Amino acid sequence: MTSGLDDFVVCCDLDGVIWRGEQIIDGAAGGVAELRNAGLRVVFLTNNSSGRVRDYVARLAGAGIAARPDEVGSSAQAAVALIASSLPAGARVLPCAGAGVVEALEAANFEVVERAPADAVVVGWHSTFDFERLRLAADAVRSGARYIATNLDPTYPGAAGLLPGAGSIAAAVSTASGRAPEVAGKPHAPTVELVRSRFATRGVMVGDRPSTDGALAAALEWPFALVLSGVAGAPGEEPVPEPAPPFVAANLGDLAPQLVKTFARA
Hints:
Layout lengths: L7 E5 L6 E2 L2 E2 L3 H10 L3 E6 L6 H10 L9 E3 H10 L7 E5 L2 H9 L3 E2 L7 E4 L7 H12 L3 E4 L5 E4 L2 E4 L1 H12 L4 E2 L5 H10 L3 E6 L2 H11 L3 E4 L19 E3 L2 H12 L3
Parallel strand pairs: 1-4, 1-13, 4-5, 6-7, 6-8, 8-9, 9-12, 13-14, 14-15
Antiparallel strand pairs: 2-3, 10-11
Helix pairs in contact: 1-9, 3-4, 3-7, 5-6
């Protein structure tokens, strides 16, 4: 049985908190170091299913942040756990998604296929989405495959502005197939279970998107810490909620002292 801060994590989103596209956000590495130096355990959770775990570990290292693979979770893993709740190993799964979904499917011993027949379809963010991928995914869904979206985020924060997100891709597949997906990522139940089973039952959720990161914090019954380095407050995107979350800062570097003061051991 763990106690004290052993069962407490600072759970950080990646896109909009650590980086925007290829650009590292000012204060990110220093904020993580300050949290760790105060004895707080930091883990990372992303709705972006496009990257493999080792890709995220390498990107974090490039940002000056050391992380182990078991400290990184994604909506790809949550989506595959959702599939495994009803389909056996060896089932045929069509990913309309990036390498992170393929990695998670292979780790769970599903057969990755490129076209129907398929037992399930997983839609996630990827920059190579095109008409042919839309056609193949929609065909499989119309044929009865279980249809899962890693998340429904409408946009994705890039270095030069907001890009279409996984929700935009899922909307195309839904329109073409006539079916709505089950959703695995933040703030839905599969990700709540992933956080509780892999990371901790207590913590604080750090993110840039109130509708997903903030809603996940509410589902976990954790405080929400909002950074303004991503989506929240951006023109045409999500406003800062009213009332504001208990912790708000421009970036993780500015946020870290608030979290240390509140949650670290005296």
